[in-house]
Structures are given as structure tokens and as C-alpha cells.
């Protein structure tokens, strides 16, 4: 299977969830083997240089996955756009923005899916590299855990737990095996969510300033406040899977393996990536010059332009 990039540059504007700032975002095609990278167009000098993404740049995981470089450059809330890039198998792209945060759009990855569809996806000449999990790698923290296990495909299983009546109405666990299920149908529309009391606390700390009922599910003491309700009966756990897929794609390569988590979040997801990279016996890099040898989970990547 070949690497992929965009057929053309594409532009969109939106609002940062936490900053409340208006953000201009542009995605550009990028060369083979360049990976996913970011550039802040509102900065100058060294701070305006291109930032090649790696798991080791995720140095702030409060409420989102945020790049923080040695020069203090920040690019926040990258998980939703990364999730969309993973769904379309985009290996190489330059993401430019004029603010410290990717726009939240509607709180899901669907607007970024539409953006990629508008740009078109093209094959490149170099082979796509996959990280294949060879043995179980697990991170445990108080009250939560995540793990990779060997699996000839890509499967995600997550469980959430909240002591709140809204969450008692739906299944707290969701599993999706991409050999038979579509990311766009099953995951992309799931929105971020938060509790009303948390929103008020965040705003007192100058966070969540761009959040509203059009870009997040907001929950009060008893119910969902959004008048349209939920997009899926179990939208909350599906959004956590959306986040996890985006967090894992910060690796810059698709993963052949199974990911499982209980009450996972951005910090522990990133810790798992660092843990597997630190153990050279836990994985291998593989390529598939003949697409017939691809695991079935990757046969369903949307067609290129």
C-alpha cells in the first residue's frame, strides 16, 4: 500500500474550543515520508518553523492533546483532526493555523472528514509503513488502564464510567473492528461532551471559552441540554474512541493491533505510544507492496481521488 497525501490545499475557519479565538486552518499536500506536521502562521522566527509531529511533543494533555515545543509553541486540540487523517490513511500533510488551537468545528471529526473529501486524497510513490504490535503493552494508572495486543487488523474497545444518570441509559462499552465497520458511519459524528459545572469551572480558568451547544454535548445534573439530543445512543463512548484513534495516530503511522482501554484519556493514550516505542521487542515496522496482503481492516480506507 502506498503513502497518501492531499490532492490540493484546503482551507476552513472555525473557533478554538478553549481559547474562543477565531482560527484559520489550511491543510497542504506534503512530500513522501514527511509525515504530519504543523506550522503556526501567526508566529515569527523560530516559532514559525514547521513542527514534525511525534508522540514526544504531546506535553500538555489537560482536556486535549496539545503540542508544546521547546520554543514554547503550542498547537492544541489536535485529536479530532488526527482521527480524521487516520480514517483516510493520510500519511503526509502540513497543517497551518493562525492560533494556538485547532478549531473545534461541531465537536466531532465529521467536518474534517468533509474537508479531506473536498481536498481529495492521492497516492504517492513510497510504501506506507505500519507499526505491527508483537506483544502486549499495558499502562495502568489508578482507576484506568490501556493496552495494545497483537491482532491482525485494527480493533478498538473502550469502556467509560461516569456516576451520572445520563450515562446509565447507554452501554458504557463499545468495540469496533475496522475489518467490518466504517469509521465515517460509526465514529465520525460522535461529539465531545462535558458537564455544565465543569464548563463553568473551565471558563473561570480561561478554558472552554469557545464551547457551546453547537460544538459539544453539555450535560446538567440530570440530562443532556442539547435540544437535538444525541447522534448515537452511546455517543459518549464513541467519542472517546474517536479521541483514542486520533491520539494513537500521533504516531504518524497506522497500527496493526488491538487497542483496549478503561476510562482512557489523552495522557494515558500518549503514555502507551511512548511505552511501545521504548520496547523494540514489542513491535516491528511492516510494508505491504501487494495490497492483497493488507489486513482486512485497511481494505476499507476510502478511495483516493
From TrEMBL:
InterPro entries: Ribosomal_Su5_D2-typ_SF (IPR020568), UDP-acyl_GlcNac_deAcase (IPR004463), UDP-acyl_GlcNac_deAcase_C (IPR011334), UDP-acyl_N-AcGlcN_deAcase_N (IPR015870). Zn(2+) binds at residues 80, 239, 243. It catalyses: a UDP-3-O-[(3R)-3-hydroxyacyl]-N-acetyl-alpha-D-glucosamine + H2O = a UDP-3-O-[(3R)-3-hydroxyacyl]-alpha-D-glucosamine + acetate. It is an enzyme of class 3 (hydrolase). Its EC number is 3.5.1.108. Coiled coil: none annotated. GO terms for molecular function: UDP-3-O-acyl-N-acetylglucosamine deacetylase activity. The active site is at residue 266. Its cofactor is Zn(2+). Pfam families: LpxC. Pathway: Glycolipid biosynthesis; lipid IV(A) biosynthesis; lipid IV(A) from (3R)-3-hydroxytetradecanoyl-[acyl-carrier-protein] and UDP-N-acetyl-alpha-D-glucosamine: step 2/6. Keywords: Hydrolase, Lipid A biosynthesis, Lipid biosynthesis, Lipid metabolism, Metal-binding, Zinc. It comes from the Bacteria. NCBIfam families: lpxC. Catalyzes the hydrolysis of UDP-3-O-myristoyl-N-acetylglucosamine to form UDP-3-O-myristoylglucosamine and acetate, the committed step in lipid A biosynthesis. Belongs to the LpxC family. PANTHER family: UDP-3-O-ACYL-N-ACETYLGLUCOSAMINE DEACETYLASE 1, MITOCHONDRIAL-RELATED (PTHR33694:SF1). This is UDP-3-O-acyl-N-acetylglucosamine deacetylase.
